[in-house]
Amino acid sequence: MPEVPILMPQLGESIAEATIIRLNVSVGDQVVADQEVIEVETNKATMDVTTLCGGTVRELLVEEGVSYPVGTVLGLLDVTEEEATRTGVQPGGTEDPVSSGSPAEAEEARAHFATPEGGAHEPRKVEPSIRGLSVPAGMKGAHYLSPRMKARMDELGLRAADISAIVGSGSGGRVTVEDLEQFLEYISTWPHSQASPMRLSVADSMRRSWSRPLASVGRPVALDNLLNYRRSLDPKPPLTIFLLRAFGKALSEEPASAGYLIGEKIVHPRAFDIGVAVQVEDGVLVPVLRQVDTRNVGELMEEYLELVRRARERRVPEENTGGGIATVTNFGTFGLMWGTPIPLPSETLILGIGAGKKKPSWSEEEDKFVPVTEADLVLTFDHRVVDGGGAGMLLNRLNDLLQEPENL
Questions:
Q1: Is 286 a domain residue?
Q2: Contact yes or no for 4/84 (Cβ under 8 A)
């Protein structure tokens, strides 16, 4: 009779193990699909382990009061072929967890699938099904790339992110060389174009940026004071200059917010140089304005306009390339209300602003709703350096500064 394991599921993104609190069934009991059979406790909550399908409890392999890692086989069910088919579960049988794939890769993989210390039952191979079985955490699964696979990817100039669309047929869902070759053959007849050097540069930068824990917060900002003040100026500075100036001033008051984590140290900025994102053909360039905290809007405007023009020609001066501590992006120019920009790998922060829109706002003085022009400010930050509260306070300070544009 086919057997199906009862696995310790992935109970949370950061949870690696759970303690058995209570066994709700005994050997020989009949169970149905999704029945709560074992109660477990993590460092965050008490939860229940359920069955994947109906059957008879053949064996319970754990003890109450003992902790087991995610992916451990907690017990075994005897199931009928009909029940397995009905619930979409592929019986595990007694297959070696690392026996699939080529013989050359099998031996390399076994070291990564070793039985945990303490004699815990070795995770059995369970094929993913429509019920979404978890891949045992003790197995590298799709994250494990064999030396042979890495060598082939190097030959093709591929990175791990490039093969994320491939469904692996190896143990625990890992992608094999055969899977890769089959995928490349499958897409070989699709329409394609060569990525430009600019596109490849942006892709590499974003890949490195995304290796950090990034988060975004946002808040609305009233623009009426700023827009009225801007109308009184000749020439009229672009809105982005006011944002640059306010950002530089706010960061100079709280420089740790723009720090960079290196090991166990936060390196603080020595100058408040801020870049501005400029959309160009097939990419984005970020010319940097130096010492934004010490120069007012009028002093920044001429250089800003020149750098934007040079960026669109792809001729940014060397002295304005790199070295920024943060970036400003005005995605509102594309009619977008909200976005989650990603900071450059060398920066902790990026500030974005959406398109302005008239909204009704209650006026206590006039005792009625009045039209107010608002836009959303969005700050994306490296959560290792800045917390949500700190990011929120930085946005609030930016809002205050923008309400007094004449002081910028």
A1: yes
A2: yes
Number of structural domains in the chain: 3
What pLDDT does 173 receive?
72
Q: Is the pTM of this model over 0.70?
A: no
**Burial class (CB within 10 angstroms; exposed 0-12, middle 13-18, buried 19+) of 197:** exposed
Strand partners, 362: 369
- Which tokens go with 310? 């040079």
CB under 8 Å to 155, separation ≥6 — which residues? none
Q: Which domain holds residue 87?
A: 3-127
* Helix locations, 290-363, DSSP H: 297-312
Q: Pick the last residue of a domain from 187, 213, 237.
A: 187
Instruction: Tell how strand 326-329 and strand 274-276 pair up.
Output: parallel
Residues of the chain with pLDDT > 70, as a percent, come to: 84
- For 354, other C-beta atoms within 10 Å of its C-beta total 23
Q: In the listed set 96, 127, 158, which residue is the last one of a domain according to the structure?
A: 127
Asked whether the predicted pLDDT for residue 110 surpasses 60, the reply is no
Do residues 183 and 209 both lie within one domain? no
User: How confident is the prediction for the chain on average, in pLDDT?
Assistant: 82
Q: Dmax of the chain from CA atoms?
A: 87
**Token digits of residue 323:** 């070295």
Task: Say if residue 263 is in the same domain as residue 174.
Answer: no
Please check whether residues 393 and 280 belong to one and the same domain.
yes
pLDDT range class, residue 97, cuts 50, 70, 90: very low
Q: Quickly count helices (H) and strands (E) in the chain.
A: 9, 19
Of 58, 133, 125, the closest CA to residue 88 belongs to: 133
| Each residue's pLDDT tens digit, 303-340 | 999 999 988 888 888 889 888 999 999 999 999 999 99
